[in-house]
Amino acid sequence: MDYQNRAGSKFGGGGVASQSATNADRRERLRKLALETIDLDKDPYFFKNHVGSFECRLCLTVHQNDGSYLAHTQGRKHQTNLARRAAREQKEGDPKSGLGMLTAGVQVKKNAIKIGRPGYKITKVRDPLTRQMGLLFQLQYPEIVPGVVPRVRFMSAFEQKVEEPDKNFQYLLIAAEPYETCGFKLQAREVDRRDGRFWTWFDEDSKEFWVQVLFKTEREERYAAAPGLASSAPRR
Question: Which of 50, 113, 141, 226 is deepest in the core (most CB within 10 A)?
């Protein structure tokens, strides 16, 4: 922000920002911080109402834009309500289910008997055109319940209860009855969800589930908020 023409400031100096400018700068910093860990498409408390405003179903607050909502998620009220919700779910849930980090994730029947974790293989991949880095997950479900297709969900570091939250990481959860849900710790980079970049496929014959995750390039992440600067076309 340009402060050099404000009252009481010298030419070329920083100047004194007004209260409204300070609040706007704070909200922008909180929005950028939240974008590092929150995917609005997967946020269960994010809701767009019929008048175009955004609501937080957890705190029952209304916000004029997504930036205001993201800033709200980093505030004390939202974080306190998240902790209360997690404590209540842990108290009401089954302590023997082994789902410490899945309280906000996939719903599991309490009377389901788990038969262990599926076998898996992780391979590093790289798109030959865009040079995007990513991971390919292969999981084996030989005893999967007929008619069940594994489900995938991304979880922020602040939702899990296994370790101390670290904004530099996120989690990929894959669930399928009657197996235990698998959680993979990934970098907190934005996932490219365009066609052909992020995909899942379940082979009914071999009972094998495939998930490919490609991260956006540093340039796309840097200029994602600037229209016209982030090119979606692959480099030649």
Answer: 141
Q: In a 10 Å sphere around its CB, with 0-12 CB exposed, 13-18 middle and 19+ buried, how is residue 181 labelled? A: buried
Tell me the pLDDT tens digit for each residue of 28-38.
777 777 667 67
Amino acid at position 187, single letter? Q
Written as six digits, the tokens of 143 are 């005893």
| Number of C-beta neighbours around residue 209 at 10 A | 23
SS3 for 145-185 is CCCCCCEEEEEECCCCCCCCCCCCEEEEEEECCCCCCEEEE
CB 179, CB 116: distance < 8 Å: yes
Q: Tell me the C-alpha distance between 148 and 182, whole Å.
A: 16
Structural domains present in the chain: 25-92 (no CATH), 119-225 (2.60.40)
225 DSSP 8-state letter = T
On the question of a cis peptide bond just before residue 178, with omega within 30 degrees of 0, the verdict is yes
